[in-house]
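B., you asked whether I could sanity-check this one before it goes into the benchmark set. Here's the sequence:
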Amino acid sequence: MVKLVLLRHGQSIANKKNEYTGWSDVPLTPLGEEQARAAGRLLKSTNIQFSDVHTSILVRVIKTANIVLEEINQLLIPEHKTWRLNERHYGALRGLNKDYTRKIYGKKQVALWRRSYYSIPPKLEQFDDDRRYQNIPHDLLPLSESLEMASNRILPYWNDEIAPRLKQGKNQLVVAHGSSLRALLKYLEKISDEGIDGVEVYNGEPIIYTLDDKTLDVVEKEVLSFND
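And here's what the prediction gave me:
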């Protein structure tokens, strides 16, 4: 058996303002930093020793991961940063308040954009000029994404980088975002396209999977909450 832990970053400033974030880079709030520390304390109590940590290339995730690693005394492990674990791209919705978009587009449409597996938010006119993405072919960079599209960019990284390490019996920690983790949950738990609509991943609550180290089938799942 091998352990896989998925963790959503602590509260960000955009979370606090109830804004769409996507690939925008926003920092953690003080509460978000405390949530990361609390997540670290919860993980420390499990005594899981990780071989690697995987993150997106957005600061709210990187900061969360570093705080957690410090709390569990595992700052020494390799940290792999990849754009493929970035949050789902919300296109032209980014930076907008979610309640405001409900007034403009209607509650039903916003619910589809936020939770449907296939619905694509309005696109940006052009991609941002950002050094983090300079070496990535432009045809791979989205102007907006459905959860399905996000899943299609995340799963190659899972197959190439995370799954092989798990099959070697190496415990892995993945710190990412609400939607990118929902995509991994859907894959791991074989959740239907319709069923993923009701799945939520909360800030700073570690999800611990015990996996068969040959098939990577889920043997056990546990969610740690600092509210318990």
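One thing to flag: The domain at 2-18+28-87+146-223 is CATH 3.40.50.1240 (Rossmann fold). Otherwise nothing jumped out at me.
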